[in-house]
Specification:
Strand 5 and strand 6 form a beta hairpin. The model has no long low-confidence stretch (mean pLDDT 94). The strands form four sheets. This protein has a seven-stranded mixed sheet, sandwiched between helices. A three-stranded parallel sheet has the order 8-10-12. It has a two-stranded antiparallel ribbon with strand order 2-3. The longest helix has 20 residues. It contains six helices and 14 strands. The protein is an alpha/beta fold. It has a single domain, classed as Rossmann fold (3-Layer(aba) Sandwich), CATH 3.40.50.
């Protein structure tokens, strides 16, 4: 299942537009905050899909019942670009456990590259709800590689894959490579073009550099 939260008119589109705007991008704090806001919205939407149970709460005047999540999810992200999006989700899903994957593109001849995983930190994932975030879904290789690396910690009951801007090719790659059941893809925008170098057009640029400054 692919869910595009930007397909309907909402404040989501304002945040995505500001992320794309080259003049607003000069303010890295604004860029990070807009990523964080979208993470909060994704977290809210994903929370609707989870299992709940009724719990009693005691107020100063009496008692009432409230549906609460049966179990907390695991929030995972790909360093470093995914950190603001991850923080936004953690703002809302504040009891979640966390996982982190360090991945990079190893460039080879011409425009070829391979995704290399350097480090994984994760709690037990067996039969848990996993939410894996990466702000840009270009080729989709990083997301799939990160997911496979996380599976050494157990097979999740359901995995939500979250990206702000995706390419058509990236979405199709995930649909081919991921399990046919137990997965949902969430995006806020889908762009048509992917360059030979694996960059989304119009996209928004390098999310990691825009959030934290250019790397050497």
């Amino acid at each position: 299942m692919v869910i595009n939260i930007g397909s309907k008119n909402s404040v989501v589109n304002q945040f995505v537009r500001e992320l794309r705007d080259s003049s607003i991008q000069q303010d890295s704090m604004r860029f990070r905050r807009n990523m964080e806001r979208l993470g909060e919205i994704f977290a809210y939407e994903i929370s609707k899909t989870m299992d709940y149970e009724i719990k009693e709460v005691v107020t100063s005047l009496g008692t009432t019942e409230t549906p609460l999540m049966k179990s907390v999810p695991v929030l995972a992200t790909i360093l470093r670009a995914g950190l603001p999006l991850h923080q936004g989700m953690l703002n809302f899903l504040d009891k979640a456990e966390n996982a982190f994957v360090s991945a990079y593109r190893e460039h080879r001849k011409d425009d070829e590259f391979a995704i290399q995983i350097e480090y994984v930190s994760s709690p037990e994932l067996e039969k848990r709800i996993l939410i894996l975030t990466d702000p840009m879904l270009a080729t989709g290789q990083s997301m799939v590689a990160a997911f496979k690396a996380l599976l050494i910690h157990g097979k999740p009951a359901h995995t939500h894959f979250v990206s702000v801007v995706a390419s058509v090719q990236g979405v199709e790659y995930l649909k081919r490579m991921l399990p046919k059941t137990g997965t949902t893809i969430w995006v806020a925008a889908i762009d048509d073009e992917l360059t030979a170098q694996g960059y989304i057009v119009p996209g928004l640029g390098d999310a990691g550099d825009l959030a934290f400054g250019q790397k050497v």
